[in-house]
Amino acid sequence: MPHISRRLLLPLCLLFSVIGALLIASVWSFANNADRHLGADYLGFASEVVRGQQDGLHLQQAIESLADSPDPLHQQQALERLWIIATRRGSVNQYLERSALAKTDYQHILDEYRVLNRLLLEVEPILAVAPYQPESLARLKTMADELDDSLAFIYSELQHLVFGAAANQQQLMQRLSRWLIVLAALVMVVIAALMAALYQIARQKRQVEALSVTDELTGLNNRRALLDQASRLFAQSTRSGAPISLALIDIDHFKQVNDAHGHPTGDRILVAFAALLKDVVRRADLVARIGGEEFCVLMPQTDANGAAELSERLRRAVIDHTFRGGPGQAEALAITISIGVTTSRTDIAPPDDSFAALYPRADQALYLAKQNGRDRVEVG
Asked: Chain-centre distance of CA 5, in angstroms?
């Protein structure tokens, strides 16, 4: 079993290592890109760009209205348009700083913003005196056209960058999602493989444990299992005060069966007798094979009469059963058993509180059964 366990665990360890490396790489990539995209509200950025594309047109309309009616109201409207353009630049700068865009990607836009700032600084004082100096209106219209061209360039470039960055972000998240799905599937495969390996190891462990306490030929408990379970049954008997009985069973003249018909036939007799023994005893009784043709029945909560009755019933069941030899042997074999029975006693010192205390008396009773002609039950 250790060899099999190592054979199963080695590939599992390798698979865990590969998945762990992939998981670390994916987490690092996700964290790195998530840090770059932290706060990058491309939807809001795109909305700001769309609104900014109208600023040049609105400024031109305001200046044309001022040229048609040079009064303080239209002057104020034009000044508000200048303020909106300047304010929107601050908003765009914040979006750029929070985006995943490299500064080299939008450096030409920053350069154009410097040109825009210069034009705004030139336009504002002219606009301030335009209602009172009609000759300045022509210059104001020219500068409004220059402002519109600058704004058109800035927001056209920003639109290209923002939509490109949003598409890249979407592709990145899709790739990361696919990686996470693949890793999740791999983790499920590893968990399934680990569960299968653990099941296999547990099954092998149960098989080894069963073999260590089971007689390989008959499937009954072996001597080790008998002694382990007997301790529990005697402890229960001591606590409850109920008697416990022991029967030792020996197949009569079994060596002659082996000599006359061969060991394979002898094995078949043992298997058939073990099956018969399990059918006759009660569910609570503990049955074991403790030697070649020697068997044992430990009967909890059973007095001497009950043990003797069960033993006699078993003896008669063996006589009535048809034991067959090997293939080609039609004649049934006459099989009998001898049984020695004893029951725990509390009127002696020390009291019968262990398997070791009952076994010698049952063995002596079995000896008497053989001495007295076999095929009989003796109580000791």
From this structure: 19
Query: Which residues are marked as active site?
Result: 293
Burial of 314 per CB tally in 10 Å (0-12, 13-18, 19+): buried
> Percent of the chain scored above 70 by pLDDT?
88
Do residues 280 and 272 touch, judged by C-beta distance below 8 A?
no
CATH code of 2-191, in short, is 1.20.1420
Contact 311/295 with Cβ under 8 angstroms?
Answer: no
**Full-model pTM:** 0.52
- Asked if the model's pLDDT at residue 276 lies above 60, the reply is yes
Q: What is the distance between the alpha carbons of residues 83 and 248, in angstroms, rounded to a whole number? A: 110
- What is the per-residue pLDDT for 3? 47
- On whether the 223-379 domain is CATH 3.30.70.270, my answer is yes
- How many Cβ atoms are within 10 Å of 63's Cβ, its own excluded? 26
DSSP-assigned letters across all residues of 151-193: HHHHHHHHHHHHHHHHHHHHHHHHHHHHHHHHHHHHHHHHHHH
Query: Residue 37: pLDDT above 70?
Result: no
Largest CA distance in the chain: 148
- Three-state DSSP at 377 gives strand
Domain with CATH 3.30.70.270 in the chain: 223-379
In this predicted structure, the answer to whether residue 30 has a pLDDT above a threshold of 70 is: no
- What's the distance, CA 355 to chain centroid? 46
CA distance 155 to 161: 10
Domain with CATH 1.20.1420 in the chain: 2-191
Q: In what order do the strands lie in the sheet with 294-300?
A: 286-289, 294-300, 244-251, 337-343, 377-379
Cα angle 36, 38, 42; round to 5: 95
What are the tokens at 111? Answer: 């350069």
For tokens 């609104």, the residue is 51
3-state secondary structure string, 247-310?
EEEEECCHHHHHHHHCHHHHHHHHHHHHHHHHHHCCCCCEEEECCCCEEEEEEECCCHHHHHHH
117-147 burial, b at 16+ Cβ within 10 Å, e below that, comes to eebbeebeeebeebbeeeebbeebeebbebb
d(CA 220, CA 289): 6
- Work out whether the CA dihedral 292, 294, 295, 298 comes out positive or negative: negative
